[in-house]
Specification:
39% of the residues lie in helices and 23% in strands. Helix 20 packs across helix 22 and helix 24 runs parallel beside helix 26. The strands form 9 sheets. Strands 3, 4, 6, 7, 8, 11, 14, 16 and 17 form a 9-stranded mixed sheet that branches. A 5-stranded mixed sheet has the order 19-20-21-23-22. It is globular, with a radius of gyration of 29 Å. The chain contains 32 helices and 34 strands. With 952 residues, the protein is an alpha+beta fold. It starts with 11 loop residues before the first strand and ends with a helix. Bound molecules: ligand BES and zinc ion (ZN). The site of ligand BES has 16 residues, from strand 22, helix 6 and helix 7.
Length: 952
């Protein structure tokens, strides 16, 4: 008999957001349970894992392992007979599975009727459930299940329990592969390592023992095993076997469980608190001296970051130790496993002699991000994956405070708007964007959620909330949230509800749901009236949805695409000063417009002061003109205000709300702009507009002249090497951006800067080890210029290819590949892609093609190669979260209907092997559509604007 239980029960929490208004907030992500609980992607709610005692026995020679998982569970409610546990790709010894009732110290056996996998019931189910059915239904109480299993360490992919390797070179030139075993579980790969209740809300205490048997010939004294918790006692090392037992963990989610086996060595530091308690911090890396020397920076910043977060969250880091390990092969950038954070080497190691400032910033931010998760994510965890943004968006926000504490001279908070907000808005203005909070129903969908929306829109709206609440109120509310939910789980409304009492203004939950439950963002049009009441200005505000391209047919929102908007602004009083206005709320349910009165006559206003909030500002023609002058004459002083003004005007130009020529005109003053964030925004807007007219040779030539002229004053104003010690971080950034783009734009091999770059390349290629430190912050410029101005024999290209092969530093490898990919010679590029499939290709096969696709001249080639080698790419990457997205994004640069059809046709029918890139395909197609629209609407005017530059 098939009984259909409704899908709706339990999916949503009804949240009262204001008098009478109730909103469905997705929570559990249910499916029908037709035959039994295994039909549902979610574990049954009446069984909770409480503790695991796990033993793993790994054979280093065969890369096989066996294990025993003992899970203690709390059953609530009576009449339970199905015990479901996640497992995938493991061999379970079904006859050895046992079930027990636990009362105090007394453990009694229960009869098992049968055990089965969900797929035995329905082949199409992929819920990864192993079901243990008890003969008699059990009542509420404590139970225990013991499962013996066997598995294989992954050697072909970097998820679950996997093997990584690097090549150790000896002085006599012999090369030996060195292996490590480590884990990477988020979101749902813990189940591929051992049976477990693999959902974030199933927090339990883990007691782990790991035994590794090594083949003869390996010196086991050099090897160590790390896990989330400290060792319980010194490990035993005898007869080629290392045996390690770890202390019981705090309650934690399965995706955070981790261990690592390697011959790495470490450096350590101690964080000591006022009360004398300590945290032992270690950074583990390869033994080779350059790697060890590169571990110190992480140890320098981590204590400062932890200290800051203990203040920020007002809860101490809860473990005795924090290990951080740099793995030679790693899926993403880093993973926040509790007490044992795993990184790819380039995200943790910084070589003080040869690494660039950009690398330093990357390392500091990845550490700050992962350490932020130790509280937001690990201590308090999202209840279900639909709130992934709570984890990622919050860590991406708090990260900035961690960096600021570790590197106070960087003024990193000034980069929040340009790096987070604009990136999020670019993505979120597309009709194929999605709300922050979404329903997920499959592991692929889940992995696809690790995207710009979860990270950057997430961070942006947290920032917005902090700014409208005020930093202190926000801190009070956050303290309340962490204290209430620690060692537990929370939905997004729990966060908003905890923050709300700390703020006396509008209801935080009510406001925030308009930003999390609907996709996109508004633009606010501010119209000034200075004539009705002389001496006063009446500002009329109106909000509208901002969208690039056409909305999808079924596109609706329960808020009708209106938001609760904190409208902040700066203004200039006629013949007076620039001042900041008081923030006003423009509510979704307001009448269509709202007015503010300022008791002064104003020349202009600029909305969204300091770019703190997540919307665009639009004005009437006269205000735009006044703002353009304010930008030029330096009246508008805040770098973020200038940046957001430029950003907004281009977005509004793209959607035909402002004339394109007006937006481009605003960039004409850029020669005089010396602030890095502003100039980099202007450059990026000009290059984007220019790329749209690349098919017109005259306009395109003028574009490059314009760029070269814009950057000339900057390159003349700087030296290739730092002039002073401890220069502000914007100096190396400016140096890198200005020189790199100037050399590219000038198109003249005899230009002094190009000549200098080419010389530096020649010198470097002769002596890479000796010459790197002298060009570390202009490394990209030197490498790219060497390729852009290469001779017909491709001499530099071949030299650089060799440099790449000899390099074991991933950050450098990426710069080489990106430079090599700039070649205009398609024969070498084809060969490069061919070679990228070799087993020892550096920095990941996908990266070569991705970088080729970056350059206007190579768009067609990249697309052709993506198609012809699709199967190979898909097999390798369709389960990895970020990479597949990058690959399927390659054709997003096209701008014709013909190409749209071609791309669509290619991906149609490939759904099953696109894996985690499915959503990105949709986004890519939407991007092509919007390019087509752009071309139709703006090609002529942009072409004319650039062409006219030449005739002046
Ligand atoms: N939790 C993620 C790691 C992750 C990413 C797991 C994708 C599963 C899928 C981690 O905290 C993270 O976000 N890492 C980033 C670096 C960070 C600085 C943005 C990464 O890997 O790029
Ligand atoms: Zn993260």
């Amino acid at each position: 008999m098939r009984i259909s239980i409704g899908t709706l029960i339990g999916i949503c929490a009804l949240v009262q957001v204001s008098e009478g208004a109730v909103i469905d907030v997705p929570t559990r992500g249910e499916r029908d349970t037709v035959d039994g609980p295994w039909d549902n992607i979610r574990l049954p709610e009446n069984i909770a894992a409480k503790a695991y005692t796990m033993t793993l026995n790994i054979n280093w020679g065969t890369m096989n392992y066996t294990g025993v998982q003992e899970v203690t569970m709390e059953v609530t409610g009576d009449d339970t007979k199905y015990f479901l546990i996640h497992t995938s790709g493991l061999v379970i010894d079904k006859t050895a599975t046992t079930l027990h009732k636990v009362v105090g110290d007394v453990v009694t056996d229960l009869d098992i009727k049968r055990t089965f996998m969900d797929t035995e019931k329905k082949a199409e189910l992929r819920h990864d459930f192993y079901v243990v059915e008890s003969t008699d239904a059990v009542t509420a109480g404590t139970y225990k299940m013991i499962i013996s299993f066997a598995g294989q360490v992954q050697t072909e992919k970097l998820t679950g329990i996997y093997r990584s390797k690097y090549i150790r070179k000896y002085q006599d030139d012999t090369e030996v592969p060195i292996y490590q075993i480590s884990t990477d579980f988020e979101p749902v790969d813990a189940r591929t390592a051992f049976p477990c209740f693999d959902e974030p809300a199933q927090k339990a205490n883990w007691t782990t023992s790991i035994k590794v048997t090594f083949p003869p010939g390996i010196d086991i004294n050099e090897y160590n095993i790390l896990s989330n918790m400290p060792l319980k006692e010194a490990p035993t090392k005898e007869n080629q076997i290392i045996s390690a037992k770890f202390k019981e963990s705090v309650p934690m989610s399965t995706y955070l469980v981790c261990f690592a086996v390697s011959d790495f060595i470490f450096k350590e530091a101690v964080h000591t608190r006022a009360d004398g308690s300590t945290v032992l911090m270690r950074v583990h890396a390869r033994r080779e001296p350059e790697f060890q020397a590169s571990a110190s920076y992480a140890l320098q910043v981590t204590p400062a970051i932890i200290k800051e977060y203990e203040k920020f969250y007002k809860v101490n880091y809860p473990l005795e130790k924090l290990d951080q390990i740099a793995l030679p092969e790693f899926n993403s950038g880093a993973m926040e496993n509790w007490g044992l954070i795993t990184y790819r080497e380039s995200s943790l190691l910084y070589n003080p002699v040869t690494s660039s400032t950009a690398e330093k910033q990357r390392v500091c931010s990845v550490i700050a991000h992962e350490v932020a998760h130790q509280w937001f994510g690990n201590l308090v965890t999202m209840a279900w994956w639909n709130d992934l943004w709570l984890n990622e968006g919050f860590a991406s926000f708090v990260e900035y405070y961690g960096i600021d504490a570790a590197e106070p001279t960087w003024n990193i908070l000034d980069f929040f708007y340009p790096d987070e907000v604009t990136t999020a808005m670019n993505f979120d203005s597309s009709p194929s964007s999605h709300p922050i909070s979404v329903q997920v129903s499959s592991p692929e969908e889940l992995s696809g959620l690790f995207d710009t929306i979860s990270y950057r829109k997430g961070s942006s709206i947290n920032w917005m909330m902090q700014k409208f609440m005020g930093d202190e109120n926000f801190a009070t509310g956050l303290e309340n949230y962490i204290a209430t939910n620690k060692y537990g789980n929370a939905y997004m409304v729990d966060l908003f509800d905890a923050l709300n009492p700390a703020y006396g203004g509008v209801n935080v939950t009510k406001v925030m749901l308009t930003w999390t439950l609907q996709m996109g963002f508004p633009y606010v049009t501010a119209a000034l009236d200075t004539t009705t009441t002389p001496g006063s200005t009446i500002i009329t505000l109106e909000q509208n949805r901002f969208l690039v391209g056409d909305a999808k047919e079924d596109d609706t929102s329960e808020f009708g695409y209106k938001w609760h908007i904190p409208f902040s602004y700066v203004y200039k009083v006629k013949d007076g000063a620039v001042e900041t206005g008081v923030t006003h709320w423009l509510m979704a349910d307001d009448e269509s417009s709202k007015t503010i009165t300022v008791e002064k006559e104003l020349e202009w206003i600029k909305g969204n002061a300091d770019g703190n909030f997540y919307y665009l500002s639009n004005y009437e023609e006269a205000t735009w003109t006044a703002l353009a002058s304010a930008l030029q004459n330096g009246e508008l002083t805040s770098a973020t205000d200038k940046t957001s003004l430029v950003y907004d005007v281009f977005r509004l130009a793209e959607t035909a709300k402002v004339a394109y020529s007006k937006a481009l005109d605003m960039t004409k003053y850029a020669k005089a702009e010396s602030e890095y964030v502003v100039l980099s925004r202007i450059l990026s807007e000009v290059l984007t507009a220019g790329d749209g007219v690349r098919s017109d040779e005259t306009a395109y030539t003028e574009l490059w002249k314009y760029v070269a002229a814009m950057l000339k004053p900057r390159v003349e104003d700087m030296t290739w090497d730092p002039k002073i010690d401890n220069e502000p971080i914007t100096s190396p950034k400016m140096r890198d951006m200005a020189l790199r783009n100037y050399c590219r734009a000038v198109k003249d091999k005899s230009d002094a800067y190009v000549v200098e770059a080419l010389n530096k390349f020649t010198e470097f290629a002769k002596d890479p080890a000796g010459k790197k430190s002298g060009i570390k912050d202009v490394f990209t410029t030197v490498m790219r210029t060497a390729i852009i101005y290469d001779d017909t024999e491709n001499t530099n290209w071949h030299k650089m290819w060799k440099l790449l092969q000899d390099s074991d530093w991933e950050a450098d490898q990426r710069i080489y590949i990106a430079a090599l990919a700039r070649s205009s010679n398609t024969t070498v590029l084809r060969q490069m892609i061919e070679d990228s499939f070799s087993e020892d290709a550096k920095a990941g096969t996908w990266r070569y093609l991705y970088y080729v696709s970056y350059h206007g001249d190579n768009y067609d080639l990249a697309w052709e190669l993506l198609q012809s080698r699709w199967d190979e790419y898909a097999v390798q990457y369709n389960t990895t979260s970020f990479t597949m997205g990058y690959l399927v994004q390659i054709p997003e640069v096209f701008d014709t209907q013909e190409m749209y059809d071609e791309v669509k046709k290619f991906f149609d029918g490939k759904e099953s092997n696109i894996g985690t890139g499915k959503k990105t395909v949709e986004e890519t197609l939407a991007k092509i559509k919007s390019n087509i629209k752009w071309k139709k609407e703006h090609f002529e005017s942009v072409k004319t604007w650039f062409t006219d530059l030449g005739s002046k």
